[in-house]
Amino acid sequence: MDNKELFHQAVSFITAVHQVTFDMTKDFELGDITPVQYGMLEYIAVSQPVTLSEISECKHISMPNTSRELKKLTDRGLCEKFDAPEDKRKQYIRLSAVGQSFMNAAFAHMEKEFQYRLRHSTEADLKRIAEAMQVLQESLFQEGFKSGGA
Amino acid sequence: MDNKELFHQAVSFITAVHQVTFDMTKDFELGDITPVQYGMLEYIAVSQPVTLSEISECKHISMPNTSRELKKLTDRGLCEKFDAPEDKRKQYIRLSAVGQSFMNAAFAHMEKEFQYRLRHSTEADLKRIAEAMQVLQESLFQEGFKSGGA
DNA sequence: TAAGTTAGTTGTCAAATGATAATTATTAAA
DNA sequence: TTTAATAATTATCATTTGACAACTAACTTA
Questions:
Q1: Where are the domains of chain B?
Q2: Bases in strand C with any atom closer than 7 Å to a protein CB
Q3: CA dihedral defined by A24, A95, A134, B125, rounded to 10 degrees?
Q4: Are B13 and A136 spatial neighbours (Cβ–Cβ below 8 Å)?
Q5: Distances in whole angstroms, Cα of residue B27 to Cα of each of A83, B4, B33, B93, B106
Q6: Is B34 within 7 A of strand D by CB distance?
Q7: Which is nearest to B9 in space by CA: A16, A131, A49?
Q8: CATH class belonging to A30-137
Q9: Which residue ranges does the record assign to the HTH marR-type domain (chains A, B) (predicted)?
Q10: Cα A58 vs. chain centroid, distance in angstroms?
């Protein structure tokens, strides 16, 4: 197996994933929520409850900017903060009922596009897809380890 | 196979791909090239020669903004325009020698991170990874078709 | 308890990006 | 041959995003 060739394949693959992800989400109406704010909401939805620091680190947004954007979201009633019992400096963030239903709609939209793409897939196809994702997520796209590291 | 469950797996997978892609590229020194400009260069590198319209459509940047950002890149000597012989309105864009070596460095950096992630993989592993990417790119992450369509 | 560290906030500034209108030149269609 | 459509440019403006400094409060460690 030529590693160089595998790398080229990976570049093409990653490009396709980005492209398809964009296509699957692009016609969901964000209203006056900005892309960065939506990214934060998505992260909160999946990982709630989360702290501000966690959002900041995972979404690669500085603490001041995270704080600012999150404030806009809470002001709009999309998420809620509550004090961490174990550490009074910390605040946990979760979606409000409104925020939850907004994100439910977003995910429903994504899932519709997703199911459309798989409309002609057989049971065997779906199984192969699930296995393929698992293979990649356990190797190339495994998270939580660094190379050079800063 | 539960489609709902597969969707959740896909969300997790896509998140991992985005995360790892970011990690693999983040410590490459962009100098004073902005992220959007880098995205354009990457697209040109892979698909050259390309027209302005193609960049605009594929990178989802309006024509005026594409034109503006591309002008900055050509002014810096990173890419070159040349007239399309078949249509005098069109201009093809390709990387200059300088732009080419910049992108070579960028890809080399990515590849280094890539190979590091696969450093413990056996021949059999690499084969499974290649096959997995192929499976997904032929199904879920197939490009060039739309659902609702605008 | 003093000093240092962590979590988060507020304010301000500059740069990057997105959006729109108006324009030229060229090609395609009626 | 007028008309409409396409490819690209320029100019302008508003918004978004990123970066930095200064700050408070709470926690940790020596």
A1: 26-137
A2: 6-12, 15-22, 25-28
A3: 100
A4: yes
A5: 35, 36, 14, 27, 10
A6: no
A7: A131
A8: mainly alpha
A9: 3-138
A10: 10
Say which DSSP state A89 is in: T
Fold (CATH) for B26-137: Arc Repressor Mutant, subunit A (1.10.10)
Q: Does B27 touch chain A (CB under 8 A)?
A: yes
Statement: the CB of A84 is under 7 Å from strand D: no
CA B90/CA B111 separation, integer angstroms: 34
CB of B88 nearer than 7 A to strand C: yes
B6 and A129 in contact by Cβ < 8 A?
yes
* pLDDT tens column, B94-140: 999 999 999 999 999 999 999 999 999 999 999 999 999 999 999 99
Strand D contact with B85 (CB < 7 A): no
Structure letter (DSSP) for residue A28: S
Q: Which residue is nearest to nucleotide D11 (CA to C1')?
A: B64
Interatomic distance A85 CA / D14 C1' (Å): 42
pLDDT in tens, B4-19: 899 999 999 999 999 9
Prior bond to A49 cis, omega within 30? yes
Output b/e per residue, B3-20; b: 16+ Cβ within 10 A.
eeebbebbbebbbbbbeb
CB A79 within 8 A of CB A85: no
